[in-house]
Amino acid sequence: MKKIISTSKAPAPIGPYNQAVLSGNTLYTSGQIALHPETGELVMGDIKTETKQVMENMKAVLEAADMTFENVIKTSIFISDMHNFAQINEVYGTYFDDATAPARETVEVANLPKFVNVEISMIAIK
Fold this sequence. Notes:
- This protein is α+β, with helices and mostly antiparallel strands.
- The chain has a single domain (2-125), classed as CATH 3.30.1330.40.
- Helices cover 21% and strands 27% of the residues.
- It contains two helices and six strands.
- A six-stranded mixed beta sheet has the order 1-2-3-6-4-5, covered by helices on one side.
- The two termini are 16 Å apart.
- The relative contact order is 0.23.
- The mean pLDDT is 96.
- This is 2-iminobutanoate/2-iminopropanoate deaminase.
- Belongs to the RutC family.
- Pfam families: Ribonuc_L-PSP.
- GO terms for molecular function: deaminase activity.
């Protein structure tokens, strides 16, 4: 049985998908980009600011499922320029404890929705 997870503290979906789906004890999140949840505007000051907004959006989705970053077992990071990796990783790393950080892949892609620089999705378990 699946349960749709939704929160107004993260951007509303802009297509035929949900912010997250809980199946049993496993949460599958949709990718988050740097949309401000209240205004719907992109937060694009610099790559660190953009990444922080993505992670705050993800935090809100996790909280809506009664989870935290401690529950995350896998992340996927999509970036438009691998030269931004170190700065993205710096911000991303503040949300996890190095000893218990999740598995992860980081992939450079040609384009992301709304031509943002970073999109992150996660899998978490209770």
